[in-house]
UniProtKB/TrEMBL annotation:
Protein name as annotated: GTP cyclohydrolase 1 type 2 homolog
Gene3D superfamilies in alphabetical order: 3.30.70.120, NIF3 (NGG1p interacting factor 3)-like
Binding site for a divalent metal cation 2: 64
Binding annotation for a divalent metal cation 1: 65, 103, 327, 331
Keyword annotations: Metal-binding
Species annotation: Chitinophaga eiseniae
Family note: Belongs to the GTP cyclohydrolase I type 2/NIF3 family.
Listed NCBIfam families: YbgI_SA1388
UniProt keyword annotation of Metal-binding present: yes
Length: 364
């Protein structure tokens, strides 16, 4: 199996276009055409993790955090990033990162957190916009199902938990084939009237080339009439954070103690308690202070995330309880997610989970 096959699976689950503009997800080092000896799964691609990959016979490291964020003007080993780059390249170890694209999918990093707490009826806290388009096309009635099925197979027509969604309206189209044409119906040089279906489907922007290929391949006409329109709709399955509900309400102090246990953290930093039961919980893996207002607007009793600064805790303003569990702790279950994605697709492939604890923060 080649590295590119693993990348295809990871990016089908968490497409690269879903990453934030500042991010650097994707293949950081290595050649996608390399044969995979094995893959090592980790949160951070540190120098110790590269050493572990070499020792355990892995030529691919799949990490959550990209080891390279900004440009490297020199690679001479003076920083830990440069040392990782030198060692990985020297030993032909490829490094791939699925970061904010994995954060932003509905069943991504935040879902791993929610699962640990048993949250139900979860939804994306801050859905993204600008990720959807709509295709309009016109098909002879007899061929509409063939085209429709091809578009569905290419990934069009998914809305939330519903698939094969389309709108179909029957009407009459006209055309007149010019010199050298070979129309599917009608005679060149004569105006032809044809009963057609106006077919509409919605799709994610990153699938556009595949959607159009499916349209052109399945459509019977020599010249295919179609329109692609960008939508401002929010994409409910893609975005930052999640909010859901506990099966049963819990007392605040007991809930925080349970959170500490579930996330295996040495410390939970939290704002003053409000003396109210905890039922609705919002959360975000990693640095999530930017979603605090969203969590409050969603009516969450507690917001679980990481990397809150001192003054940001004041922003809770007795409207919510902030529970900062630590950056590593909030995202540590990503390794399990990587493992699930790859073993679900490749039943005869057994990636390895790193034994290196990469958390740079310690607690007394």
């Amino acid at each position: 199996m080649k590295i590119k096959e693993i990348i295809q699976v990871l990016e089908a689950y968490a497409p690269l276009p879903y990453q934030e503009s500042y991010d650097n997800a994707g293949l950081i080092f290595g050649d996608p055409s390399w044969e995979v000896t094995n893959a090592l799964l980790t949160l951070d691609a540190t120098e110790a993790v590269i050493d572990e990959a070499i020792a355990r016979g892995c030529n691919l490291v799949v990490a959550h955090h990209p080891i390279v964020f900004g440009g490297l003007k020199k690679i001479n080993g003076r920083s830990y990033v440069e040392r990782v780059a030198i060692k990985a390249i020297k030993h032909d170890v490829a490094v791939y990162a699925a970061h904010t694209n994995l954060d932003n999918v509905r069943n991504g990093v935040c879902a791993q957190m929610a699962d640990r707490l048993g949250l139900e009826r979860c939804r994306v806290l801050q859905p993204k916009t600008g990720l959807l388009k709509k295709l309009y096309t016109y098909v002879p009635v007899a061929d509409a199902e063939k085209v429709r099925a091809a578009l569905f197979a290419a990934g069009a027509g998914n809305i939330g938990n519903y698939s094969e969604c389309s709108f179909n309206m029957e009407g009459q189209g006209t055309f007149n084939g010019g010199a050298g044409t070979n129309p599917y119906v009608g005679t060149p040089g004569e105006r032809h009237f044809e009963k057609e279906i106006k077919l509409e489907v919605i799709f994610p922007v990153y699938l556009e080339s595949g959607i159009l290929k499916a349209l052109f391949t399945s459509h019977p006409y020599e010249e295919v009439a179609y329109e692609v329109v960008a939508l401002d709709n929010t994409y409910q399955d893609v975005g930052s954070g999640l909010v859901g509900e506990l099966p049963e309400a819990m007392e605040e102090q007991a809930f925080l103690a349970w959170v500490k246990q579930q996330f295996q953290t040495g410390c939970v930093r939290y704002t003053p308690l409000r003396g109210r039961p905890v039922k609705k919980v919002a959360l975000c893996g990693g640095a999530g202070s930017f979603l605090l207002k969203r969590a409050i607007a969603a009516g969450a009793d507690v917001y679980i995330s990481a990397d809150f600064k001192y003054h940001e805790f004041f922003d809770a303003d007795n409207q919510i309880v902030i529970a900062d569990v630590g950056h590593f702790e909030s995202e540590q279950f990503t390794v399990e997610l990587f493992y699930h994605i790859l073993t679900e697709k490749f039943r005869n492939f057994a990636p390895l989970k790193s034994t290196i604890k990469t958390n740079p923060v310690n607690y007394l």
